[in-house]
Structure prediction request, 314 residues.
Amino acid sequence: MRRFLAGRILLAVPTLIGVTVVVFVTVKLIPGDPVAAFLGPGAPAQARAELAERLGLNAPVPGQYASWLAHAITGDLGVSIAGQRPVTEVLGAALGNTLVLAFAAFSLVVVGGALLGAAGAAFPGRWPGRSGDGLATLALSAPQYAVALLLVAFVAVGTGVLPPGGMHDAADPGGFGDLTAHLVLPATAAALVPMGLTARMFRATLTGLLGGEMVEHLRARGLPERVVLLHAAHNAAPALLTIGGLQLAYLVEGVVFVETIFSWPGLGHLLFTALSQRDLPVVQGGVLVVAVSFVGINLLVDTVHALIDPRVRR
Prediction:
């Protein structure tokens, strides 16, 4: 297991280096002048030159990347141009809020995907199976932003049962219950597409197992169909773990539309605001955090998968 984990970590290192290069170059290509965004377009040339020197923008691009990477490794992602606060401080609270939303949506993805996939595999051609397949296809085909807008219009505004946005009631924050009420709509909108994909993949895996020799032997021993299905689902669990882990990584990086529509104060909403303000240090740091989180989650999924299934370690 140690050798497996060491190999995965060694493979993650060049991936992370490549991620930092892509993040740095991509942010450099974003239109806008951070000096003008900070000082204003009418700032004196001397002040602009001094700020560019202090921010290291006068150095060659490879030198800027080397300096940024050296600081990023130590946890220093610079200072927000708009807020004049350390980028790590700005990103910390936003990342925590994104993780709350991502894990709430992830719970819906795993539970809903497993139930829909199991229904489709266990009852093919019957109404439970057709309903599961239909709902999975509908969830997979629904545009995330369109679903979010429909939920705001018809559920939040139309019925008033759930709040249309934010993370807490600004007038009277109510603790966990208030947070849960604000989580329902954005988590549902974020979970639909990955839930549909998880259901389709889990259904395919479970269908293959139910048609295999193991299930034939279990049925030949006279075990009830419910027990046979449980055995097959247990053997399909590693596939569900792998698919679910990938969807969790997708949720961490892919909730920007949901956070913007529901005014959820997470990384997506922060990056959208930072882009409009040309706050490039925050954009750079935020994209880096999302990319590193994606790599880290995949490493964690591989590790857990290896713990569950010894064949992966071999």
In short: The mean pLDDT is 80. The CA atoms of residues 267 and 306 lie 31 Å apart. The two ends are 9 Å apart (CA to CA). Residues 87-122 form the longest helix (36 residues).
